[in-house]
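Pasting as-is:
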Amino acid sequence: VRALAQERKKDEIRQLINTLRVGFVLSTQANSRKGGLCGMSAVAVALGPDSNLFMMELFPPQIDALRDMDPRVRFYACESLFNTIKAAQETSMIFFSQLFPAFVKLSADTDEMVRSACDMVTKALKEIVVAYPQCLDALNFIPSLVKEFQTFDPSARQYILEWLCLLISIPHAFSLLPHLAMFLPHLLSILADPNIGLQKKAEQILFVFLGEMKNEEE
């Protein structure tokens, strides 16, 4: 793959990725799907920064695999995406509105290894958002946030609140305040959640928004 990249043989690389997708990732056999995901991960690592040129080929099949019925495949999809995201860096934010809902669900996965892998990928995403906050598109993210906020699962709620805490703490990130009305009812509903930790996290976020509104009035 490195040799193909050095020779700028983009068509051959796309053909290789497509072979991995059709022949393995879309297979009815779980082991083949896992092998295909490992192959895509290896391609991304080999391409490094050049993986940005093959975003549309690499990301969608891996994101789809996050919803696989087999927990081992979901785990491999997380690991594969971790390597792809590390290679693509801020360009991977193009797919954040698709990654976010998938990882909200995986944060509450029944499989512990999948949840751990989800945490690993989430950490990588957060590092990118902190380093390149301008790459996160509010217009695509907010509708996804509002939809996922309807969950009552405590782990999923915790995941969403942690992302909100991060976003409101980043200087120069897009402001969530203009969009507050869209998800405020869901945020307020968490104040009645039996989980005290979630209540406190929601209160913390609401106080930050209240402070922002006061600053705007002044």
